[in-house]
Amino acid sequence: MGIFDFFSREKKETLDKGLEKSKESIFGRLSRVVIGKTTVDEEVLDELEEILISSDVGVETTVKIIDRIEKRVARDKYTSTGELDRMLREEVAALLTENRSVSISNSFETEQLPKPYVIMVVGVNGVGKTTTIGKLAHQFHQHGKKVVLGAADTFRAAAVDQLKLWGKRVDVPVIEHGMNTDPSAVAFDAVKKGVEIGADVIIIDTAGRLHTKVNLMNELTKIKRVVQKFLPEAPHEVLLVLDGSTGQNAVIQAREFTKATEVTSLAITKLDGTAKGGVVIGISDEFKIPVKYIGVGEGMNDLQVFNREQFVDSLFKK
């Protein structure tokens, strides 16, 4: 099994269950709209537009999807409402493909990634950032990879303590200097330690405050610059963690962080128990940044590698 092959039948069932409310929000309502109608007319498309927007797909992305469906309907004047589900599924899948949110290859297995592979994790407090780091560390560790964590969110004692707890829980070392210390010094020492012990993955937690963009930008830039003194190509990935259950707030946070630093991948958490799963589609479409992980439950293994095909299948499952 490759390091990114986190999917199994059991995981697919977790994904199905986690996206149930989002599925009902879109397709339960859509099925009620088309009752008694035989063709996809303007009224049906207007209803579909309203459903997608209220499911946090986002206005621009929704308009794009509706426009594509309209063109398909115009080509085939006799498109039935029964075909609307299929068309919607195909257009969402196409958007996710275009936006590079595709299944991750088994790069660790084939040793294509640099060693150590440094991931800098950003995101506001409360989105599940530290929990995401802990779950990632657990899954890498379970796959036989040597992991080091860096507690560089030094503005909150709780953040440092929480990461230390995760380190103990998943049996990986945590480099920390305590609260109110220099975050970049912690990041530097985490990378140094990772290189010394031959770590495969180094994950650095950073401050979760959306203070002024200038301060945020300076802080993240300094962490990068200091880390690069020891490992010039690091960080190899900047992972932004967003809380999917906040819907459009997650989109606003993504805008702020993408202005403050170069974000290369996304983790969207807390999709279970919310009807806002459509936000994954909108965020992927607006930012053109790969969605790499999604959180669909509380369990250690419920942070799943985002698999476009599996996601679309679960969202559209009859």
Describe what this molecule looks like in 3D.
The chain is an alpha/beta fold and 318 residues long. The two termini are 30 Å apart.
Unreliable parts = 101-110
Mean pLDDT: 87
- In N-to-C order, the SSE pattern is HHHHHEHEHEHEHEHEHEEH
Count of helical regions: 12
User: How would you name the oligomeric state of the polypeptide chains in this document?
Assistant: single chain
Give the radius of gyration: 21 Å
The strand order across the widest sheet is: 3-2-4-1-5-6-7-8
> What percent of the residues sit in helical stretches (DSSP H or I)?
40-55%
Keywords: Cell membrane, Cytoplasm, GTP-binding, Hydrolase, Membrane, Nucleotide-binding, Receptor
Organism: Ravibacter arvi
Protein name: Signal recognition particle receptor FtsY
Binding site for GTP: 123-130, 205-209, 269-272
